[in-house]
Amino acid sequence: xxxxxxxxxxxxxxxxxxxxxxxxxxxxxxxxxxxxxxxxxxxxxxxxxxxxxxxxxxxxxxxxxxxxxxxxxxxxxxxxxxxxxxxxxxxxxxxxxxxxxxxxxxxxxxxxxxxxxxxxxxxxxxxxxxxxxxxxxxxxxxxxxxxxxxxxxxxxxxxxxxxxxxxxxxxxxxxxxxxxxxxxxxxxxxxxxxxxxxxxxxxxxxxxxxxxxxxxxxxxxxxxxxxxxxxxxxxxxxxxxxxxxxxxxxxxxxxxxxxxxxxxxxxxxxxxxxxxxxxxxxxxxxxxxxxxxxxxxxxxxxxxxxxxxxxxxxxxxxxxxxxxxxxxxxxxxxxxxxxxxxxxxxxxxxxxxxxxxxxxxxxxxxxxxxxxxxxxxxxxxxxxxxxxxxxxxxxxxxxxxxxxxxxxxxxxxxxxxxxxxxxxxxxxxxxxxxxxxxxxxxxxxxxxxxxxxxxxxxxxxxxxxxxxxxxxxxxxxxxxxxxxxxxxxxxxxxxxxxxxxxxxxxxxxxxx
Length: 512
Hints:
single chain, alpha/beta, Ribosomal Protein S5, domain 2, Rossmann fold, Helicase, Ruva Protein, domain 3, 3 domains, 5-stranded parallel β-sheet, 4-stranded mixed β-sheet, 22 helices
């Protein structure tokens, strides 16, 4: 008897429909074809054990299974469930009435329990698009998939539940998620707040501007000045996820296996902080069978690189293209996958090897030229993609000991949201541009042209401070964001003055 069941293959962050054809006929062989990898081929032993432990019988006949399309490699153990159901249906142990409208995935343990898988959200989206009415997944992944409306998602714990469902001997409980409640409740909850930060008002203002415009930022200061502390609080002032952003980000984390059990939807923007020993493959993604890297896991959120000069130079250089294109394409001989990588880069570094260059109290002990050599570990093309450069000095004792409460993150966040709303309306008709950081050089003359007084100030600053040519467009982009925060349609001299102050490393006098 020939039957068809349906599963899915996840490539990148998208799923592809896999049709599993099972034919049981006279003979004694077991054949599995259609480009399965080793873990899929090993499913035979898991299926046999799972069925026998639960009182079911693997047919003592010839079983031929084809996984179509055959040009897509099938990998992983999550095909166990559809393969087992197909074998049972082809041998007459399961009714076939609902197989054509159901898609299922899940790994079988030897006792028949169904174990979690990766990419449940991507599978659910594809199943809905392909017109399936039922989606059967491990119980641990059901809530994640249930955020997709228009398809019935069932979480199962054991193979016997699936058999009883298709034979209509018992029903499964459909997973239902109140998406609005979960989404709105979780996205405003943060463990860290800017009210914990004493002093550093100028740096907090810079982070507010960076959050409002989506600007990349680097902080330079001595050890203990609060660089990491403030960077980790940046997500608390970023605009909340839209539903579309939350779905896309959750897809990436689901494919990478980073979502927790029984999780529904990521409601807070990701904050990724890899160690400086990370490899370039781990940063951008890849491997024999590609997985998302740190830049994709930071999509729609923040990628924080602490001690930036300590990172391997190759790792830093591979960031250049994703920072421009906001995506990463990983190519192999037979296929390529694309992962989104629209992240906000925030970096922190000491000003020199000893850490005390330009310190107001402690003397730098680095040899002549050591400061410049230390800065040269970061290439000019990478610095060219960082809009804001902030110099930080330690907080005086008086401010640390003060009992005055600093401004809460929620207050800052509301200003950031208002600034983003202005940008969203401005770029409503411009495809692929959502914030000021994404403005191209050609668009500067339309959206970021200062008034006459501002032009004079910018010209004077370029000459007097010996600012580099690459600083020009960055200053205009940041000034556009500062003007938006002030509610000004025109970029004025005061906005440019603040933007110019955020170009510390471009000043030839900074190194000394």
